[in-house]
């Protein structure tokens, strides 16, 4: 009993020392957390005055509003409409309910959000984009789709025509047709032979899927 009574003061001293050590660690951790919460996250390396791109976004290049970018945008639109329309025609035929007319096609591709709904017009099979109108032609006999892009003005570029499927095209690759003039354009009849389209003043164009060099893209 006398030896046990002598051990209790030692145990108390050890317990107090451990408690003081734990409290000091907790206090230091809270202080460090408080300092971390107030640190500014902005970091700069080197002299910002000598860094031409420090914390600044590169200037965005905007094409001038001219015939070239408008023609490119219209080509993108007519290609998208032709692909969307032919896809709907193929899916409908496989489901056993072939499309009835061009108006059904334009309404359905807009409903599926494949083209903007604001492009819809009161004319059957006609869509109106920013720089022209898109006339969707449909042949239920062979499930063919033909889309003609008519420019709103001569500054919007030439007229364009895409046909899917292009059964007369056997070797030249993916193509479309472009009118050779912007005034007095002669539009061919729906699904006319290619020879008739060319005689009407249109020329064949091949889709080029090439990428310009890095230096040219930077310019």
3D architecture notes:
- With 219 residues, the chain is of the alpha+beta class.
- It has a domain at 68-206.
- The chain has 5 helices and 6 strands; from the N terminus they run H-H-H-E-E-E-E-E-H-E-H.
- Helix 2 crosses helix 3.
- The longest helix has 36 residues, at 2-37.
Number of helices: 5
Structural class: alpha+beta
Shape: globular
Strand neighbour order, sheet with most strands: 1-2-3-4-5-6
Main β-sheet, in a few words? 6 strands, antiparallel
Mean pLDDT: 79
| Poorly predicted spans | 32-48
Helix content: 25-40%
Q: How many beta strands in the DSSP annotation? A: 6
How far apart, in Å, are the first and last alpha carbons? 94 Å
- SSE order, one letter for each helix or strand: HHHEEEEEHEH
Q: Cα-atom Rg, whole angstroms?
A: 35 Å
Question: Which helices and strands appear, and what pairs or packs with what?
Answer:
Blueprint: H1 2-37, H2 67-94, H3 102-111, E1 126-128, E2 132-139, E3 144-151, E4 160-164, E5 175-179, H4 194-199, E6 202-206, H5 214-218
Antiparallel strand pairs: 1-2, 2-3, 3-4, 4-5, 5-6
Helix pairs in contact: 2-3
């Amino acid at each position: 009993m006398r030896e046990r009574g002598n051990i209790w003061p030692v145990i108390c001293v050890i317990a107090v020392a451990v408690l003081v050590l734990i409290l000091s660690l907790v206090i230091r951790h809270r202080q460090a957390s408080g300092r971390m919460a107030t640190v500014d996250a902005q970091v700069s390396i080197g002299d910002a005055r000598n860094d031409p791109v420090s914390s600044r976004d590169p200037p965005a290049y905007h094409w001038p509003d001219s015939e070239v970018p408008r023609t490119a945008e219209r080509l993108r639109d007519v290609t998208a409409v032709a692909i969307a329309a032919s896809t709907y025609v193929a899916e409908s035929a496989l489901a056993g309910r072939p499309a009835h007319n061009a108006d059904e096609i334009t309404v359905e591709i807009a409903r599926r959000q494949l083209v903007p709904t604001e492009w819809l017009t009161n004319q059957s099979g006609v869509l109106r984009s920013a720089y022209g109108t898109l006339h969707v032609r449909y042949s239920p006999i062979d499930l063919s789709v033909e889309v003609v892009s008519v420019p709103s003005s001569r500054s919007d570029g030439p007229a364009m025509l895409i046909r899917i499927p292009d059964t007369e095209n056997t070797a030249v690759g993916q193509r479309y047709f472009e009118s050779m003039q912007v005034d007095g354009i002669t539009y061919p009849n729906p699904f006319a032979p290619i020879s008739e389209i060319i005689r009407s003043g249109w020329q064949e164009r091949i889709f080029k899927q090439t990428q310009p060099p890095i230096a040219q893209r930077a310019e």
